[in-house]
Design goal:
Shape: elongated
Number of helices: 3
Distance between the termini: 78 Å
Helix content: over 70%
Order of helices and strands: HHH
Mean pLDDT: 87
Strand content: under 5%
Structural class: mainly alpha
Radius of gyration: 21 Å
Length: about 90
């Protein structure tokens, strides 16, 4: 009987730990996201902070992972276009 109670308590602690981790990631990512959006209008590295926010949020939220993947694809495509333009003009 004690073993079953211990197992239930342990499982409860694990669930609470996951929820706390998810909440902390949401708060940290949310703060970075707000700062990044503000830096679009104020001086600062907006793209860097927004990318960092998506990296943090993508560890727990699938929508952030999809957005980060799209951003990486866009950056890769932009890099290829810029390289092609430099080769063409150079």
């Amino acid at each position: 009987m004690e073993r079953g109670l211990l197992r239930k308590s342990f499982n409860h602690v694990l669930r609470l730990g996951r929820a706390l981790r998810r909440a902390l990631i949401f708060i940290a990512g949310g703060i970075l996201l707000v700062l990044g959006v503000a830096m679009l209008f104020l001086p600062g590295p907006a793209v860097l902070i927004l990318s960092l926010a998506l990296i943090v949020l993508s560890s727990e939220f699938p929508w952030a992972r999809r957005l980060l993947d799209r951003l990486r694809g866009f950056a890769s495509e932009l890099r290829a276009r810029l390289r092609a333009r430099v080769r063409h003009t150079g």
